[in-house]
Amino acid sequence: MIEILNEAELSRAAVTGQLVGTILHDLKSRIRVGTNLLEVDRWAKAMILEADATSCYIDYEPSFGRGPFGYYICVGVNDAVLHGKPHDYQLADGDLLTLDLAVVKGGVAADAAISFIVGSTRDPADDALIDSTERALAAAIAAARPGARIGDLSHAIGSVLAEAGYEINMEFDGHGIGSTMHQDPHVANDGRPGRGVRLRSGMLLAIEPWVMADTNRLVTDEDGWTLRSATGCRTAHTEHTIAIVEDGARVLTLPASPTT
């Protein structure tokens, strides 16, 4: 199903998106060396409930997972890139952390992810990994407008990631979003321009480039959810929810400004 939102629904989507972006921004600002992943989940829960919103993950039970996810946010450390389950782990200096958050508020969902380095120890290869996903996302957003096709966005993502030297996994990708978190169309992280669904004003898309440093193969943790690089290499994941509007694309999942 592909939902086309009206102006009132797009306004509510903007509120949800800003909430997601603000929570991620606040979590990043609070996380330090020694922060426990379970504490990050508790912080996310408190902010979601305070905003009278609902986590898309707490009861999430797709065919590829093992039972309900059971937490409010996905957290991935180093080689964990998708569906990372919070667990009893204290973040170390130099860890590469991914936070992925999706909530529903006012009947509309929004989904976003950020990757960043914890502490002061930095490896240039990690920075390059994160930067590549951010640039790929920006390229896809620049290609998104009414009349464009999904393949144009996928091609933009894939071109940036391939030029940076990364292999691309096609098992998990971006997606349409609206009253529910996962909808059609799929937004693959590589593809051919001029192919696929034609974009229309009122569509919402969650675009999420992610890569692994030296492989395109994933393995699943014993928790049945957390997806890691098959080689144990570092990973990064960046995501925004956008609305297709008459003059292009509007990024919904940016944090509120300090004066908002």
UniProtKB/TrEMBL annotation:
Binds 2 divalent metal cations per subunit. Has a high-affinity and a low affinity metal-binding site. The true nature of the physiological cofactor is under debate. The enzyme is active with cobalt, zinc, manganese or divalent iron ions. Most likely, methionine aminopeptidases function as mononuclear Fe(2+)-metalloproteases under physiological conditions, and the catalytically relevant metal-binding site has been assigned to the histidine-containing high-affinity site. Substrate binds at residues 83, 182. A divalent metal cation 1 binds at residues 100, 111, 239. Its cofactor is Co(2+); Zn(2+); Mn(2+); Fe(2+). A divalent metal cation 2 binds at residues 111, 175, 208, 239. Its EC number is 3.4.11.18. GO terms for cellular component: cytosol. Residues 17-245 form the Peptidase M24 domain. GO terms for biological process: proteolysis. It catalyses: Release of N-terminal amino acids, preferentially methionine, from peptides and arylamides. It is an enzyme of class 3 (hydrolase). GO terms for molecular function: initiator methionyl aminopeptidase activity; metal ion binding; metalloaminopeptidase activity. It comes from the Bacteria. Keywords: Aminopeptidase, Hydrolase, Metal-binding, Protease. Belongs to the peptidase M24A family. Methionine aminopeptidase type 1 subfamily. Removes the N-terminal methionine from nascent proteins. The N-terminal methionine is often cleaved when the second residue in the primary sequence is small and uncharged (Met-Ala-, Cys, Gly, Pro, Ser, Thr, or Val). Requires deformylation of the N(alpha)-formylated initiator methionine before it can be hydrolyzed. This is Methionine aminopeptidase. It comes from Pseudoclavibacter helvolus.
